[in-house]
Amino acid sequence: MNTIKVIYSSVLATIAASIFVTAITVAAELSPALKNILAGLAGHHWLTKSIGVLVVYAASLTLFYLLPLKQISPTALRRSLFLATVFVWIGFAIILLFFVQHFLQ
Amino acid sequence: MNTFFPLLMSKPVLVGLHLGFAIIGIDFFLWLLGEFIAEPVKRFRLRIVAFIGLAGFLLSWIIGGYYYIKFYGPLVKPIIKAGAAPWAHAVAMETKEHVFLFIIPMALTALFISFLSKEQFSNSKLKLPTILFIGSMVAVALAIGAMGYIISAAARWS
């Protein structure tokens, strides 16, 4: 197993997961119909989102690992890890500010 | 066994276990942060620490999720929403329950990084981005913990 490639794939999968969580959270609050669909899938909307993030992460990691990349440069790996950190903070800010705004409406 | 399982599934025990395992996750990833700063040659301890940190967060997630769906929703949420600080649910809980979903992919990534040899880690110049990544994960987890305190306080003093 190529450890560098696993890490790179995991970092990209983390970015994908954070985008998924942010998007599905905002979308479900704005659309009661979507929230009901999510609730119907696993019994509770949050449970569906939890399972969803695991599926998105695992599928993305697998997909990125199977991509025929010749070599992952140290620069690419470093940049992706910085980017993942940025995406997490942006996702945090969007979710927090969305719920503040939603409450104040 | 007849008394142990019901006790384990009681509300205060579930909240305590949820919090306890989260603290284990935070503490072990802080330890991992220190390990990456120190950059030891032998990596076995580093990997064990990362694994235990991940296990802590996973257990906190499962136990917290069970409590949230079974007890918080029907019993605690209505009290908070009708009380003096309804924003404790509308903002703190809603943010907490969704932002937590970032933690497990981050924890898995940190675990994978721990499997690099010292040489691979140094050659890839991963020290600063790894420190920022794990530090951010810990900071997010601490923020989630603070939100948990706000929610508990709002329920207790409603």
Automatic annotation (TrEMBL), chain A:
The entry's keywords: Membrane, Transmembrane, Transmembrane helix
Transmembrane segments annotated in the record for this chain: 51-69, 81-104
The protein's name in its UniProt record: DUF5658 domain-containing protein
Organism the protein comes from: Candidatus Wildermuthbacteria bacterium RIFCSPHIGHO2_01_FULL_48_27b
TrEMBL record, chain B:
Parts of the chain that traverse the membrane: 12-34, 46-69, 99-116, 128-151
Designated name of the protein: DUF2231 domain-containing protein
Species annotation: Candidatus Wildermuthbacteria bacterium RIFCSPHIGHO2_01_FULL_48_27b
Domain of life of the source: Bacteria
Key words of the record: Membrane, Transmembrane, Transmembrane helix
